[in-house]
Known about the structure:
One of its GO terms (molecular function) is copper ion binding. This protein is of the alpha/beta class.
Amino acid sequence: AVPTAVMVATGKGAELGVxxxxxxxxxxxxDLNTVVLDKTGTVTEGKPAVTDVVLATDGAFVHRxxxxxxxxxxxxxxxxHPLADAIVRHARGLGLTVAEPDTFESQTGRGAIGxxxxxxxxxGRDVAIAVGNAALMADYSVDTASAQADVxxxxxxxxxxMFVAMDGVLAGVIAVADPxxxxxxxAITQLHAMGLEVVMLTGDxxxxxxxxxxxxxxxRVVAGVLPAGKVAEITRLQxxxxxxxxxxxxxxxxxxxxxxxxxMAIGTGTDVAIEAGDIVLMRxxxxxxxxxxxxxxxxMRTMK
Length: 304
Ligand code: ADP
Ligand code: MG
């Protein structure tokens, strides 16, 4: 039988906008001492928008910002990543025609590649596009040195810079900014006040991650991690004796949500994450994660 205290707490959780999937999750949440947060869509709004387009000065192929955006948007129209979505929305907002690419391949945690037609069927030519982070550029031996200063500056502002290569030559950088949720800073202050260690995990680069963490009041950051790396970090913390909550929203967070002692899914996130979570934060507000932990602690005390 489910103890009355658990039923009461589950009901209170629902009132707060927190769906607790069973008494066991509630119990474990009372023992947490570490909260790991995904960045994009968890600490931030997850609705990134293009802020800057920088053309490589020695780029061999692109002459105009709109040509670059049109071709990159064509590739990104096939990607489900929020960064891709930002680029496509930006291109459409400029009135550009976003055509189907000839080929497309997603490279998880790195970016996307594909071939698009530049110009019409007879007079145009096929261009191989790669859009993504430094690791993706390294995979295709693209020299990014000429853009490094721009990339560093953009990342220091908390923006996510993405390199664009055309036929293996750097063509430019597109930066996207994803604002921090208004509630995140207060939530992190609350978590700290409750004695919890807060860590942010992200596939994004170190500089951008550090800037976002600084704005949100988070003191530990692990950047540049692939989905498997998120699981590894949680396992590492658990091996140190920590009781770990993972809060995430994306498909790529699902394995980490499952590995954590308590997986907390953002209710506005992907179905896969919601499925993997023990607790669902319906409004995506991190303050409700702190409230859920406080509720669990109180409930466990009354049951002892
Ligand atoms: P996060 O953990 O922040 O949600 P991901 O692991 O999904 O990030 O992605 C890591 C990095 O890979 C991104 O910051 C970006 O630089 C690059 N990337 C991933 N997908 C794309 C894409 N479709 N277009 C461009 N860049 C991408
Ligand atoms: Mg995310």
